[in-house]
Design a protein that fits this description.
Blueprint: H1 2-19, E1 41-44, E2 49-52, H2 60-71, E3 84-90, E4 93-99, E5 105-113, H3 119-128, E6 133-144, E7 147-159, E8 162-169, E9 174-175
Antiparallel strand pairs: 1-2, 3-4, 4-5, 5-6, 6-7, 7-8, 8-9
């Protein structure tokens, strides 16, 4: 009886150790899964429709705040002020949306600090300014009536004892 119990214990330990796979994240090949927001979000309150275009940014903070905004329900404007403002903030960013009296989205302004930069931006800076390193960044994204009006990065770059501020558009072009 004693040997049967010992044999069962050994078999059970063997099965549990083989059942636990060690799955390491694939950081080297950059196969990171990101949650995609829809390309266009249309909100309606019965009378009017609003269009919001979430940005497909690689940073989690940007995507997270945009997801909060998409899920946010618009409060009724009971004030005399014809424009209401909704502000959502996180530690490294802020999203401000403006609505008219009928709860139609007029515009959205977003600003984030120290975000994960897209590869096109990093590559363009390294190509145009070899030897310079990016030390600080601010990302701006704005839209009005469903049209993107601003999408650029303000970067601070350093090389030895020199410092420079540059403006880089989303396509990687550096403003001179």
């Amino acid at each position: 009886m004693k040997t049967i119990i010992i044999a069962l214990l050994l078999v059970s330990f063997t099965n549990t150790t083989y059942g636990q796979e060690n799955i390491a994240p694939d950081y080297e090949n950059a196969n990171l899964k990101t949650e995609e927001l829809p390309g266009m979000v249309i909100k309606t309150n019965g009378k009017v429709s609003s269009i919001y275009l979430p940005d497909k940014h690689p940073d989690e903070v940007v995507r997270g705040l945009e997801k909060k905004f998409v899920d946010y329900s618009i409060p009724k404007n009971d004030k005399e002020d014809p424009i209401s403002r909704v502000s959502l903030e996180v530690e490294r960013g802020v999203l401000v949306a403006h609505y008219d009296y009928d709860q139609k989205l007029i515009g959205v302004d977003e600003k984030y600090k120290n975000v994960r930069l897209p590869n096109a931006i990093v590559y363009s800076v390294q190509k145009e300014l070899p030897g310079w390193s990016i030390t600080d960044d601010t990302y701006f994204y704005s839209q009005k009536d469903g049209v993107v009006t601003k999408k650029h990065y303000k970067l601070r770059v350093e090389k030895e004892n020199k410092m420079r501020n540059i403006l880089v558009y989303a396509d990687g072009k550096i403003k001179n």
